[in-house]
Each structure stands twice: as structure tokens, then as C-alpha cells.
UniProtKB/TrEMBL annotation:
Protein known as: Glyoxalase
Amino acid sequence: METRNSSLIALRGGTIGTVTEQSSAEESFQNKTLRPILKFQNDLFIEVFTNYAIKQKGVFFTLSPEKKMAYIENTIQRDIKFRNSLKGMVIGLFSVDEYIDYIKNSSNLNKRMMNMLIERLKSQVLLFEVAS
């Protein structure tokens, strides 16, 4: 088991952001675990969202940049199956210890995870033009 844990952590990279003794457990988890995973999985998230938008009749690609941002946010907040799929792409890269920490406060950590993913996708909205 230790091989998987250390391999995952080495693969996705170290902490992104500052973690101090004053950092809350959630903030620490966010910077040590969530941010590196979201960064590592970025290209996959772009492809997954592009595929989702295509399957939704491609309306997304005809929208203005502002409306695309709203679409991204609404989709991730309202489409439970899609959101759960995205969560699975993150949780699958947790070490066992990280998963144990995650389940202690999964509700708040899920909110952080999805908010960070929404902001990540919105900041790259121009990358979605390729599929139009």
C-alpha cells in the first residue's frame, strides 16, 4: 500500500500554496492534496468538460465568454452525475491517508474542490474554443 501512496504523491507533485501551523485542516488539505491533484488532472478536466458540452448539443460553444463562465458554474453545480464524475477523478488520486482525512469532512472539502475546479475551468474558458 505504501508504494501506491508514495507513488501518487510523487506523481502529482508537492504542496501548492502556503501551509502554516495556523492553517485550518481544510486549508491544509486543499493546498497539500486538492490543488496538486487539480493541477495534475487539468488537461483531463478540459477534455471531459469539452465532451460534456458537445453531448449537450454544443450550445456552450455558441455562447459569449461571460455566458460560458456561467454555464461552467451552473453545469458543475446542478448536474449531480457530472459533478460526481469530476469528484471521482480527484478522489481516485488520494492516498489512503488523504482519503481517511477527506471522509472526516467530505462535505466542506467537496465544496472547496468543486469551487476550485469551477474557477480553474473558467480561467481557461478560451481553451474550449478548440472544439467549436
